[in-house]
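Need a sequence for this fold. Nothing fancy.
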């Protein structure tokens, strides 16, 4: 295991739930006005567009590019998306902050839902940026569900896209079956309630935008994300049922095919991404994949003890250190 630059948690955040929740609300000055931003729509299949917030360097084609992808019920404006964007842009990277399908106020851009298996969207975006924009060094960086998606996309591409320079996944749910089971444990009720309530609200919005497509009656008795995914996500995504969706959508099936430098950062104490899912031959035997798994960190938290020259967001600094010196992977 590559320990890179060890994580030391803030002394008062050794509880995994505090480590997960506090960074979300910690104030920080990110994305100042002087960082330029251009909105761009990517058509990934007929009738479906994804909104990207693009921050281009003055010499776009000569600069490396990071495509960022958020997690479940996040968006391009999520705190971690903005935090890594500021650091990456100041380090000379182009940054494309993506909204997954329907996220970030884009429900109207597709009749479909987003899901854990839609890696084809991000393969299409990499191809477009490499072909139309002539970008030659593209990194995929994803958090949680976004982490699974970028790993899955990289595995499916193998070595077919020369512009793909590498991948970073933070707290990725590479085995959705086990991750959803952990999420629905009573100890994780706050996360489960948060995600389920937001998913229900999304279906209601979609029903208003696309009359007749969605039956809202099941929502009244729906108490778990498993029920939601079985009723809505799986059927919309072309899966047989929720169990089929969870099994097939996981990046675990294609990790052995990844052929670019890849870093996975996750924590032993993540409340709903079991550490055991990363103990797999696909990771152990793939020399392109480096694992960093400190004991503490929560879910996408990694809120560190004060360090000279750094803010509290350890994972963001480690990502930038690696992307700026790829040979360290």
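Here you go.
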């Amino acid at each position: 295991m590559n320990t890179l630059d060890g994580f030391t948690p803030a002394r008062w955040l050794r509880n995994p739930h505090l480590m997960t929740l506090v960074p979300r609300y910690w104030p920080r000055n990110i994305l100042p006005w002087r960082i330029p931003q251009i909105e761009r729509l990517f058509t990934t299949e007929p009738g479906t567009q994804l909104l990207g917030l693009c921050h281009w360097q003055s010499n776009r084609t000569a600069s490396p590019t990071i495509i960022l992808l958020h997690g479940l019920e996040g968006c391009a404006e999520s705190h971690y998306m903005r935090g890594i964007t500021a650091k990456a842009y100041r380090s000379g990277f182009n940054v494309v902050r993506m909204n997954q399908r329907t996220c970030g106020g884009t429900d109207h851009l597709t009749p479909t839902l987003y899901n854990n298996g839609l890696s084809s969207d991000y393969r299409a975006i990499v191809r477009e940026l490499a072909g139309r924009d002539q970008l030659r060094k593209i990194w995929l960086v994803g958090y949680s569900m976004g982490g699974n998606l970028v790993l899955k996309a990289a595995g499916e591409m193998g070595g077919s896209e020369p512009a793909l320079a590498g991948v970073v996944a933070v707290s990725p749910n590479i085995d959705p079956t086990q991750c959803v089971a952990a999420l629905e444990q009573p100890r994780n009720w706050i996360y489960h309630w948060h995600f389920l309530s937001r998913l229900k609200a999304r279906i209601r919005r979609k029903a208003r935008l696309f009359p007749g497509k969605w039956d809202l009656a099941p929502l009244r008795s729906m108490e778990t994300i498993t029920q939601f995914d079985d009723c809505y996500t799986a059927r919309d995504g072309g899966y047989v049922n929720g169990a089929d969706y969870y099994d097939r959508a996981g990046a675990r099936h294609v990790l052995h095919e990844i052929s670019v430098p890849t870093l996975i950062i996750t924590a032993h104490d993540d409340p709903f991404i079991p550490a055991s899912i990363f103990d797999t031959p696909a990771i152990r035997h793939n020399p392109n994949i480096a694992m960093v798994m400190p004991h503490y960190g929560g879910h996408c938290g990694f809120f560190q003890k004060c360090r000279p020259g750094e803010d509290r967001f350890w994972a963001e600094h480690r990502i930038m250190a690696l992307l700026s010196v790829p040979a360290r992977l």
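For context: The chain has one domain: 16-174+249-328.
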